[in-house]
Write a structure and sequence with these properties.
heterodimer, A: about 300 residues, Alpha-Beta Plaits, four-stranded antiparallel beta sheet, 13 strands, B: mainly alpha, Arc Repressor Mutant, subunit A
């Protein structure tokens, strides 16, 4: 059974703008899925729907086979959630915040909570408002994982953290995954973090799933072709080719992204549009993101 | 042994892991029968998904370089039982790149071969008979010497930097 199962989900923003459109995503136990997309692409909405904080306008949502709106408590007890804009009560002490969470989760693991607190070197007596941004996020992570959730939802968890604090956060998540087989869905603008951590990438664009792929496949079977600007081939002609995902027009030429390995892209271009010498490159996630988002019709 | 990975590199992370282990085996830094880090430990060290490490180990096992014993761990194979046809394809791809580069810079085939001998000495590999010169004897002939370098792109990006000893 999948940990997360979203089928044909639609959701609107207030004002009737479509936030998610026909989104289907499923996550298996132990998987790490990176969720990327521009601001406003629907990442947070998707997380909130998975949490049961929002219901879908259309479509079905299942976590552990349960409806997170109907089995709200049962589902939430099996999930951990950290987001960038999560606010812990500023005047409470760290140990009080931890107590509060412990009381909500029957599966709370005191030993794990203590170990994490020691690792993070956070004084239990400190008031939340005296903590640095990084420390506050670590407290949030501790509270999100000490009940050993089966699913960890991280909404831009590293936003605003320095590189060392970000890495520490990722390390803790990996360790938890190792120990408990927790599945992780995390959204991030740090594509190197996504590349490091994720097995699978889901890219949202304007509320739709643009890519849902194994990350290694994406790295090995996608390529960018650089084509001349002199009008030998048009953007529309390229977009009509099988495997072409996006084309960006720039003054120096066209940049076309293909779901094909570089050699295959070369062959395709030679056969279909008669351009045999276009350089075709493998590209990293960050470049892919820019080409895809910028190259949509 | 310590590994280093760089997200954003041209190679996916599981390939980076594979290449470094392969190079270490070829260069003798990992000997036959030596134990490798467990998949979990390596995932934590590198801060990558455990499935990524699993994929690298599975591929290396398929190539005959390592073997996993249930409950005991993962070890460098006693004698790398490498699929000769597969390795030949890898080497051919590397050779093609090497020769086209040599041609562009006006380096003759004889000079390229001399260069290969130099690199062999640098890597500390004992000459494995006439393996490279003859046909058909791949992987089976060099039983007494260490295995030849088997990375994906043997000539493309030389690994000059030594991994620090753990």
């Amino acid at each position: 059974m999948n940990v997360v199962e979203l089928n044909n989900v639609d959701q609107m923003y207030a004002g009737g703008v479509l936030a998610l459109s026909d989104v289907s995503v499923s996550i298996e136990a132990g998987q790490v899925v990176g969720l990327v997309g521009e601001n406003g692409a629907g990442k947070t909405t998707l997380m909130r729907i998975a949490m049961g904080m929002l219901g879908p306008r259309r479509g079905t949502v299942r976590l552990f086979g349960l409806d997170p709106r109907r089995d709200a408590v049962g589902v939430k007890r099996r999930i951990g959630y950290v987001s960038e804009d999560q606010i812990l009560p500023p005047f409470l002490r760290v140990d009080r915040v931890i107590d509060l969470h412990r009381s909500l989760f029957p599966t709370w693991d005191d030993a794990l909570a203590r170990r994490l607190a020691e690792r993070f070197k956070i004084s239990p007596k400190a008031k939340i408002r005296t903590l640095s941004k990084g420390q506050a996020r670590q407290v949030a992570l501790l509270c999100a994982v000490a009940h050993r959730p089966e699913l960890l939802l991280l909404d831009e968890p590293a936003g605003g953290l320095d590189p060392a604090a970000r890495r520490e956060f990722l390390e803790t998540s990996i360790r938890l995954l190792n120990e408990a087989g927790t599945a992780i869905l995390f959204s991030s603008h740090y594509l190197t973090d996504v590349e490091r951590m994720a097995d699978r990438l889901v890219m949202l664009h304007d509320g739709r799933v643009l890519i849902d792929s194994d990350l290694d496949t994406l790295r090995e079977s996608y390529s960018l072709a650089l084509l001349p600007a002199n009008g030998t081939v048009s953007r529309d002609r390229l977009l009509a080719l099988g495997g072409c995902l996006g084309v960006r027009e720039r003054s120096e030429g066209l940049r076309a992204l293909f779901a094909l390995a570089p050699g295959e892209t070369s062959e395709l271009l030679a056969e279909t549009v008669g351009i045999g010498d276009a350089p075709c490159h493998r590209i990293g996630l960050e470049e892919m993101f820019i080409e895809l988002v910028g190259g949509q019709a | 042994m310590q590994l280093f990975i760089a997200p954003g590199d041209e190679l996916p992370i599981y390939r980076q892991i594979m290449r470094q282990i392969t190079d270490a085996i070829a260069g003798g830094r990992l000997g036959p029968g030596e134990k490798l880090a467990s998949q979990r430990d390596l995932a934590e060290q590198l801060v990558v998904s455990p499935l990524t490490v699993k994929k690298a180990y599975d591929e290396l096992e398929r190539e005959g370089l390592i073997r996993t014993e249930r409950g005991r761990g993962t070890f460098v194979a006693e004698r790398a039982a490498v699929d000769p046809e597969r390795q030949r394809q890898h080497l051919r791809a590397g050779a093609r790149r090497l020769l086209s580069r040599a041609r562009l810079s006006g380096v003759s085939l004889a000079e390229v071969i001399a260069l290969l001998h130099e690199v062999e000495a640098e890597l500390g590999l004992a000459p494995a008979g006439d393996g490279l010169g003859s046909t058909g004897g791949f992987g089976s002939g060099g039983g007494d010497g260490p295995p030849a370098p088997l990375s994906d792109h043997p000539f493309d990006q030389p690994h000059d930097q030594e991994e620090p000893e753990s």
